[in-house]
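Quick one, tokens below. Sequence please?
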């Protein structure tokens, strides 16, 4: 590259106008997933929930497909050429062409469109992503709602959701929604600088440059950028203008992985540094103290990964980190919910002990790891090319033909290898939020897990891996334009609970789509006003697929008190204690509204019930349909008056249908035995997905009895 100062890439005047008008900032979730990062010249990642995924990617020149490419070997490009984000997937083909598929609402697929790809067309039918005239990709990293590529000339292109400056173009404009990534030009990394690795995280992006220095840009609230402050970078300045991250005197980086609000690197001496949000021990320093918000990563020293041990690969996930060590063993730390760390329990590691103190993950007797990828679950490629996956599995993302978790009370070794197809082995792996993709020894790609938005690339939205193996699905068609087979409606099951969201501000998320395939299942089990403490105490379960923030309003005493409440994704709930105005607390009752705007996986939902000081004690058995009748019964506080409402929801012919029935309360009891119309019975028989119910008591003002709402799947014949 030229040693002279490069001007920022220009765009059309139309885009400049858009940029000036458009400032999207809706708060989002953390959700992220992670990616695999390797030592030497390769890396990669994941998220995400994630959240999103955040893998480190290396810029080694791309070998021909089919060559033995191993993610952990310096100079290998396999890991860099495949990555999955939260809702989408990307792969580099032989010759450097790039394909992306899945959810594209923010332009993250790069096709100058917001269309979804892979749900009713083959990814190969869309052609390559336009990276610029004559340019090809050597590495790809799919984040939560954005994507970045490392090109053959060492430049970086980023596209998708532009909030918080995560694309690095000195603004917050989306790229890829109605223009190609090639039209945006390169990200300014600094005068004369090129990149050797790139990693897109939840709301930020990091790169290793040709001189071994590190640049990070995007959302910096928790110190994830590493500049000893919480400033956002890239929204009104370029990454090249802020200089390198201090990773230690005389040190350079060989691999990088941007996770959920945190970042990890491998240095030239093969030690590990991590910075950003430290919740659950994800940084590995034996505490939960953030790093990078008011100190530099270089000031804290290396993560203890074991006496005499060094790292060759690193993957920062949604809320945990995994590393491949110099002896090919695996260490994982952070949030251990659902066995994602692989130690046969749900314990967190790194919050009050170091990763080196727990020993390696058991991946099988005599087995060693070639590559590792941490998302909301974790996958590894072993020495013989087999794959092991562990952690949450409600969508089949582990690939074992079932939905049983692995790693919570057994080790990954007990599960055996994932079936990739007769005679097939893996050269690269990427674990996302709810799905996984692998590149095989013949150069083909297999994907499994949650199929929503076409993220698996099989011309439908069906899940794979929950009751069949990935090997049975065959390869994803990335190269040729062929017609899809007849489409079969998907029956999406519930998603696994992701890790808990950190109690900190989140990077901006894109406006939610109203077309999510699943109900949010938002309920309200506690909406208590505590007069003495002036507190609003709320507990509201929600589906584990939901993410981001909700809008809360309390109408009482002639006042409207509003604020945002974050979804705790790991526990699939909204929970808070919020101090409210004195007049509202003294009244001890009011109308509470919780609004969820939806996302790519879940539909919007609003709950409006009475908040008050006294419980309703709503209890019921799960509603069921029997002989064409909807039946439900239960109890409520004997002081309550009015009715209990049972709402039934299902999707048929692409339309959401809702029916409500009322049961009168008598002496604390209620029951419902309602004949369903022929139209409703036909719709239920032809539905996609489940029939869901919301049973609610809206509250009783005279006695200050609060409203309560329960969410259940309805039992009964299809």
């Amino acid at each position: 590259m030229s040693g002279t100062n490069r001007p920022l890439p220009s765009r059309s005047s139309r885009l400049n106008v858009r940029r000036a008008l458009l400032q999207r900032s809706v708060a989002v979730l953390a959700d992220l997933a992670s990616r695999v990062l390797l030592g030497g010249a390769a890396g990669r990642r994941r998220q995400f929930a994630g959240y999103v995924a955040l893998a480190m990617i290396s810029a080694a020149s791309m070998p021909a497909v089919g060559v033995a490419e191993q993610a952990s070997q310096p100079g290998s490009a396999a890991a860099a050429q495949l990555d999955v984000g939260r809702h989408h997937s990307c792969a580099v083909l032989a010759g450097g062409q790039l394909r992306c598929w899945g959810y594209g609402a923010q332009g993250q697929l790069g096709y100058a469109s917001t269309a979804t790809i892979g749900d009713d067309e083959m990814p190969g039918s869309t052609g390559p992503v336009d990276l610029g005239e004559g340019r090809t990709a050597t590495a790809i990293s799919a984040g939560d709602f954005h994507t970045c590529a490392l090109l053959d000339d060492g430049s970086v292109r980023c596209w998708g959701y532009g909030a918080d400056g995560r694309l690095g173009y000195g603004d917050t404009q989306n790229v890829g929604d109605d223009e190609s990534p090639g039209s945006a030009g390169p990200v300014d990394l600094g005068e004369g600088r090129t990149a050797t690795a790139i990693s897109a995280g939840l709301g930020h992006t990091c790169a290793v440059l040709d001189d071994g220095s590190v640049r990070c840009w995007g959302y910096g609230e928790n110190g994830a950028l590493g500049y000893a402050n919480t400033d956002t970078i890239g929204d009104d300045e370029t990454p090249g203008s802020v200089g390198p991250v201090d990773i230690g005197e005389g040190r350079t980086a060989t691999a990088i992985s941007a996770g959920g609000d945190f970042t990890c690197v491998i240095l030239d001496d093969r030690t590990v540094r991590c910075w950003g949000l430290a919740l659950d021990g994800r940084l590995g320093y034996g505490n939960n103290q953030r790093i990078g918000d008011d100190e530099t990563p270089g000031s804290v020293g290396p993560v203890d990964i074991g006496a005499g041990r060094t790292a060759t690969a690193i993957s920062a996930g949604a809320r945990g980190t995994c590393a491949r060590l110099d002896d090919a063993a695996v260490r994982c730390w952070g949030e251990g919910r659902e066995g994602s760390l692989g130690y046969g329990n749900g314990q967190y590691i790194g919050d009050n002990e170091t990763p080196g103190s727990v020993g390696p993950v058991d991946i099988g007797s005599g087995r060693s790891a070639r590559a590792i990828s941490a998302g909301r679950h974790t996958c590894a490629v072993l020495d013989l090319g087999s794959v092991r996956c562990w952690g949450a599995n409600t969508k089949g993302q582990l690939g074992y033909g079932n939905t049983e978790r692995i790693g919570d009370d057994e080790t990954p070794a007990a599960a055996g290898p994932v079936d990739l197809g007769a005679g097939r082995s893996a050269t690269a792996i990427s674990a996302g939020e709810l799905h996984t993709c692998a590149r095989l020894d013949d150069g083909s790609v297999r994907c499994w897990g949650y199929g929503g938005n076409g993220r698996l690339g099989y011309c439908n939205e069906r899940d794979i891996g929950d009751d069949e193996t990935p090997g049975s699905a065959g390869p994803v068609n990335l190269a040729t334009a062929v017609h899809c087979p007849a489409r079969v409606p998907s029956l999406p099951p519930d998603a696994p609970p992701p890790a808990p969201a950190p109690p900190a501000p989140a990077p901006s998320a894109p406006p939610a789509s109203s077309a999510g395939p699943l109900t949010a299942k938002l309920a309200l089990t506690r909406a208590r006003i505590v007069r003495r403490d002036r507190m609003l105490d709320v507990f509201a379960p929600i589906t584990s697929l939901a993410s981001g923030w909700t809008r809360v309003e309390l109408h009482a005493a002639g006042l409207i008190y509003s604020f945002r409440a974050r979804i705790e994704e790991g526990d699939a709930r909204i929970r808070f204690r919020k101090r409210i105005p004195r007049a509202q607390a003294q009244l001890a009752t009011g109308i509470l509204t919780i609004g969820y705007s939806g996302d790519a996986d879940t539909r919007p939902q609003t709950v409006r019930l009475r908040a008050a000081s006294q419980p309703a004690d709503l209890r019921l058995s799960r509603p069921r349909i029997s002989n064409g009748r909807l039946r439900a019964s239960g109890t409520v506080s004997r002081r309550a008056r009015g009715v209990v409402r049972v709402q039934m929801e299902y999707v048929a012919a692409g339309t959401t249908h809702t029916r409500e029935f009322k049961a009168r309360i008598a002496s604390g009891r209620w029951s419902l035995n309602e004949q369903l119309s022929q139209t409703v019975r036909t719709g239920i028989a032809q539905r996609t997905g489940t029939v869901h119910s919301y049973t609610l008591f809206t509250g009783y003002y005279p006695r200050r009895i609060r409203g309560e709402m329960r969410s259940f799947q309805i039992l009964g014949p299809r």
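The chain has three domains: 30-359, 511-613, 617-702+711-718. The first helix runs from residue 13 to 21.
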